[in-house]
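User: Here's a structure from my thesis project, written as structure tokens. My advisor, Dr. K., wants to see whether a designed sequence matches the one we expressed. Can you design one independently, without my sequence as a hint?
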């Protein structure tokens, strides 16, 4: 069977038997599709924890890296025949990672989440994960599991859409704060999560600053002038969340989102392409934007 991924044709004569997930989000997807017994390595495990209901299934899977993609030698050492990744960055040879070509030379094929393909990154959508589920289901020979997971995702997204209905959309700014550095998120899967959750993004994905990348560093005045009713921000843990809240409250005391305490933290791992967590993020944001929705 053949699958087209990031403009490349991936052909499989047999079902992959030694699989690696290069991010917990990909490892989760592989496990939920029933491929747990085939996983020979998991990577970037400290970026986020696996959900409690599947954590035990991953307990004995070798860890190839903690907070960055695995080194080329470490990935090739487990002799995978299939590698799933959230973005193309994980295959950057200049960073010391195994390139897709190097994997091919060693008998492995690589699959990048649809929303993480370079030509798709700025226009990715939450529903891209459905393409990943279908593709991985076909590649791994588990179409029934893929269909069941697809139905679950579709039903959850439909429930959010029904709950929002024709309600007026609150304005939302999505930011990332690291120290004193403030970045706006204006495009990509992150922006589509806001739209799907019923928010009206105050940043335009077609603006020049987002032409080449989904995020752009900004001055605080950009937030103040747009006066969002809610602020969504990605966090890497409880400490980062608290630091970000303190920064937002101290920097934007008169912005409606701060005055009304509508500051919505989302795990950064739920914002990666190809993650079932994209749906979690949609639900989390929608529940805060529409607290009275059925």
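Assistant: Designed independently from the structure alone:
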């Amino acid at each position: 069977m053949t699958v087209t991924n990031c403009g490349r044709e991936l052909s499989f004569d047999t079902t992959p038997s030694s699989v690696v997930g290069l991010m917990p989000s990909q490892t989760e997807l592989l496990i939920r599709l029933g491929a747990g017994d085939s996983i020979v390595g998991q990577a970037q495990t400290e970026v986020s924890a696996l959900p409690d209901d599947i954590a035990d299934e991953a307990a004995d899977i070798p860890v190839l890296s903690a907070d960055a993609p695995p080194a080329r030698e470490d990935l090739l050492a487990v002799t995978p025949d299939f590698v799933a990744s959230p973005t193309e960055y994980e295959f950057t040879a200049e960073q010391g990672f195994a390139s897709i070509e190097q994997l091919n030379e060693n008998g492995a094929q690589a699959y990048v989440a649809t929303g993480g393909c370079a030509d798709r990154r700025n226009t990715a959508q939450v529903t891209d994960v459905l393409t990943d589920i279908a593709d991985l289901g076909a590649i791994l020979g588990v179409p029934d599991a893929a269909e069941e997971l697809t139905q679950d995702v579709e039903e959850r997204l439909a429930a959010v859409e029904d709950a929002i209905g024709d309600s007026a959309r609150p304005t939302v700014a999505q930011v990332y704060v690291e120290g004193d550095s403030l970045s706006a998120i204006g495009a990509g899967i992150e922006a589509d999560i806001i739209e799907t959750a019923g928010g009206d993004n105050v940043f335009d994905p077609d603006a020049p600053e987002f032409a080449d990348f989904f995020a752009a560093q900004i001055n605080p005045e950009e937030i103040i002038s747009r006066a969002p009713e809610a602020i969504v921000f990605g966090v890497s843990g409880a400490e980062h969340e608290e630091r970000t809240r303190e920064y937002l409250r101290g920097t934007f005391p008169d912005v409606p989102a701060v005055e009304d305490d509508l500051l919505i933290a989302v795990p950064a791992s739920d914002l990666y392409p190809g993650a079932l967590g994209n749906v979690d993020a949609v639900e989390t944001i929608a529940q805060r934007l529409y607290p009275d929705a059925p």
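When you compare it with your expressed construct, this may help: The domain at 2-112 is CATH 3.40.50.1980 (Rossmann fold).
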